[in-house]
From TrEMBL:
<keyword id="KW-0201">Cytochrome c-type biogenesis</keyword>
<keyword id="KW-0812">Transmembrane</keyword>
<keyword id="KW-0472">Membrane</keyword>
<protein>
    <submittedName>
        <fullName>C-type cytochrome biogenesis protein</fullName>
    </submittedName>
</protein>
<feature type="transmembrane region" description="Helical">
    <location>
        <begin position="126"/>
        <end position="148"/>
    </location>
</feature>
<keyword id="KW-1133">Transmembrane helix</keyword>
<dbReference type="Pfam" id="PF02683">
    <property type="entry name" value="DsbD_TM"/>
</dbReference>
<dbReference type="GO" id="GO:0016020">
    <property type="term" value="C:membrane"/>
</dbReference>
<comment type="similarity">
    <text>Belongs to the DsbD family.</text>
</comment>
<feature type="transmembrane region" description="Helical">
    <location>
        <begin position="50"/>
        <end position="79"/>
    </location>
</feature>
<feature type="transmembrane region" description="Helical">
    <location>
        <begin position="168"/>
        <end position="190"/>
    </location>
</feature>
<feature type="domain" description="Cytochrome C biogenesis protein transmembrane">
    <location>
        <begin position="7"/>
        <end position="220"/>
    </location>
</feature>
<dbReference type="InterPro" id="IPR051790">
    <property type="entry name" value="Cytochrome_c-biogenesis_DsbD"/>
</dbReference>
<dbReference type="GO" id="GO:0017004">
    <property type="term" value="P:cytochrome complex assembly"/>
</dbReference>
<feature type="transmembrane region" description="Helical">
    <location>
        <begin position="85"/>
        <end position="105"/>
    </location>
</feature>
<feature type="transmembrane region" description="Helical">
    <location>
        <begin position="6"/>
        <end position="30"/>
    </location>
</feature>
<feature type="transmembrane region" description="Helical">
    <location>
        <begin position="202"/>
        <end position="223"/>
    </location>
</feature>
Length: 225
């Protein structure tokens, strides 16, 4: 896998973090897996706990994303002889993902949530933080679906399981690093979060248009070149 693909997957993770389904709800996520109330998040002696539980939470969603990378690449190897057809189908899906993000397609299928039920008594424990991370990756953030789906499509076309692991690993890092930084600065994040709420809609538009362009390039074959 070349550096451009790795960087694109990493940037896709960062974009996903800044989506309306993650950043505005950041205090809620951290409160949920750390077992602390939103008022306790700003307390200085809680930072070590938040940091450790954030790492465990990251391990949970990274496990799921890496498994998805292996699965998508394995499917790609099975259909390697049909790469041209997969390229066109993948391009069509990218365009559909883009149209969903800019609001021209209203479909519950593309933004459906598949939540895992984590028992309340497990909140605030290492096991609970890991399971919440798994649940987060499994569908608690439907807004990241188009970006993640686009990366999985490209991963399946690579025909290499190693490339799939690297791509989804890069994507996980793209979400994990700002998540970790924000958890350490959670009091500052909570203070300034409302000021940035208005730009989230424009971020969706930008991602949507980018996916449509990439889809058209993929269908035409230029993207592969």
């Amino acid at each position: 896998m070349n550096e451009v693909t790795f960087t694109a997957a990493f940037l896709g993770g960062i974009i996903s973090f800044f989506s309306p389904c993650i950043l505005p709800l950041l205090p809620v996520y951290i409160s949920l897996f750390s077992g602390l109330s939103t008022a306790e998040l700003s307390v200085g002696n809680s930072r070590l706990r938040i940091f450790i539980y954030t790492l465990i939470f990251i391990a949970g969603f990274s496990t799921v994303y890496l498994a998805l990378g292996v699965g998508s690449s394995f499917i790609g190897t099975l259909f390697f002889d049909y790469q041209d057809y997969l390229r066109i189908i993948g391009g069509v899906f990218l365009i559909l993902f883009g149209l969903v993000l800019i609001g021209l397609i209203k479909s519950g299928f593309f933004v459906r949530e598949f939540r895992l039920n984590v028992k309340a008594q497990k909140f605030g424990t290492p096991v609970g933080a890991f399971l919440i991370g798994v649940g987060f990756a499994a569908g608690w953030s439907p807004c990241i679906g188009p970006v993640l789906g686009s990366i999985l499509i490209y991963s399946s076309m690579s025909g290499s399981i190693v490339s799939g692991i690297k791509m989804l690993g890069a994507y996980s890092m793209g979400i994990a690093i700002p998540f970790l930084i924000s958890s350490l600065l959670i009091d500052t994040v909570m203070r300034y979060l409302r000021k940035f709420m208005k730009i989230f809609r424009w971020i969706n538009y930008l991602i949507g248009v980018s996916l449509i362009i990439l889809g058209l390039l993929m269908i035409s074959g230029i993207f592969t070149v």
